[in-house]
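not sure who needs this but someone in the group chat was asking about Neutral zinc metallopeptidase from Qipengyuania qiaonensis so here u go. i didnt clean anything up, its just raw.
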Amino acid sequence: MRLNPFDTGNINVRSSGGGMPGGKAGGIGCGTIVIAALGYFVFGLDPMQTAGMVESVQQGQPQAGPANTNEQEVCTSSAYATEACNALTSLNATWARSFQEQGYGDRFAQPTLDLYGGGGVNTACGAGSSAMGPFYCPADQTIYIDTSFYDTLERQLGAGGDFARYYVMAHEYGHHIQTITGISQQIRSAQQQNPRSANRLQVLMELQADCYAGVWAGKNRNLIEPGDIEEGMNAAAAIGDDRLTGGRVSSENFTHGTSKQRSDALRLGLQGDDRACDRITAVG
């Protein structure tokens, strides 16, 4: 995908690194793109333990930690970092324009991108780990990515290519859209009222984030190159609950959707109409 170079005047980026800081661990991974099973099949973690670590939360106390806030320096620290900053610039511009066109320009707010390293990071949702994959924390409206995940995505999950990486970023950005529109809060409330449907509702929220990722790409079709869509579909399929667990986890315990569901959601979004994505989480 031929994205324009990042604009440090239009992105909020930082880098928090230096190992896992201290502090109380919270329910991290508010919208992590990979389910707990990834921790088991890729990183060798106990799936039940990881499932508890990635339980979504809405509240948390900010925890201080060293961070590099020089956006130019952070964005040029690696090729992956530059890609992420390019994507963030495009995502901000695309969604700001979409909100404006629909008469909700005052509701739009940019997220922060934290390209952390060293295996862990402190967040307003608690202590995060690279083993969880990229995630979004609604309490500080920040997307957290350890870019070493992209090597795992390609080498161990077979989902390489720049568009696969952009899909990861755009999915997490989709969770930010859910936060600033109130969809995330509505889903959490519905989960609390009906705990038996908690996983089903979580799947709907993740599929909507996939759809929003497709919307971003669909609104920038002039930048898409041959093979990009295939890379995105391959990535969506590679991280489906059924594919990651190899059938070892039942559909009742799915949290992100099957490979087909995720691919279908991304394909729906590629039509460029976010209103179609809104219908995914219509739980009323």
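also The beta strands are 12-16, 67-68, 112-114, 120-123, 126-129, 135-137, 142-144. if thats useful
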